[in-house]
Amino acid sequence: MDLPSFLNRSDFIGKYLPGYVLVVLYILLFEFDKISSLDKDIITALVFVVAGPTLGYTITQFHRSLPYIRSAIIGDKDDSAKEELKKTVRRYARLKTLLSVEEKSELELAEAEYDFSISTGIVFLLLEAIIFYHIVINDLKLDPLIQIPFLVLAGCLFVNAHYQKTRAYYPLFSEFVKKYKIT
Predict the structure, then answer these.
(1) Would you say the pTM of this structure is higher than 0.85?
(2) pLDDT (tens digit, 9 = 90+) per residue, 148-166?
(3) Is there a domain that residue 4 lies in?
(4) Does residue 138 sit in helix, strand or coil?
(5) What Å distances lie between residue 99 and 78, 107, 137, CA to CA?
């Protein structure tokens, strides 16, 4: 099956899928009893056309903005880190204009795998916080031990994100930067 031109594999893996995980798990955990009373077509459309991609992009943009937030918080104390961040962004933008279609696809897939891991880790932490809130206010009758798998999965995904970033994305990015002599 071919994907529509506006949707590519990298977007699906790195941006949409974490949103789908969040929405589907939230519905299964907190709203499952209400699903039967709603039209299945409306639920499907809301989850897969609206909510999943919206939340997925939001989470991805949140984690991508963290270096900028960190830099803003640190302020002028570490100008070298700010400059390095700006330099990396400029190099990335320049690189994307020079890469062949195959190289761009390879880089985007490595980036998407990192995005998926970090975003889905954030999703599991968010769901954990929601579960904790509902347990504390006693409106959800869940065993508190249900929190453990969410924390373990989040931890595993964060470790995988670090691995993806340092062993796949950064080396590939650096290789392309050297190949195209971008300074």
Answers:
(1) no
(2) 998 999 999 999 999 999 9
(3) no
(4) coil
(5) 32, 9, 53
Q: Which two tokens stand for residue 40?
A: 């299945």
Per-residue confidence band for 31, with pLDDT thresholds at 50, 70 and 90: confident
The answer to whether the CB of 169 falls within 8 A of the CB of 110 is: yes
Total domains in the fold of the chain: 1
Instruction: Answer yes or no: is 37 within a domain.
Output: yes
Two tokens at 75?
């302020």
Apex 90 CA angle, 84 and 93, nearest 5? 140
The larger pLDDT score, comparing residue 68 to residue 176, is at 176
Q: What is the structure's pLDDT at 35?
A: 67
Q: Taking CA 164 as the corner, what is the angle to CA 73 and CA 65, rounded to the nearest 5 degrees?
A: 25
Mean pLDDT within 4-21: 76
Please tell me the distance from the alpha carbon of residue 78 to that of residue 113, in angstroms, as a whole number.
Answer: 30
Specify burial of residue 100 (Cβ count, 10 A radius: 0-12, 13-18, 19+): exposed
175 domain residue, yes or no = yes
Query: Which DSSP string corresponds to 90-124?
Result: HHHHHHHHHS-HHHHHHHHHHHHHHHHHHHHHHHH
Q: How long a stretch of residues is the chain? A: 183
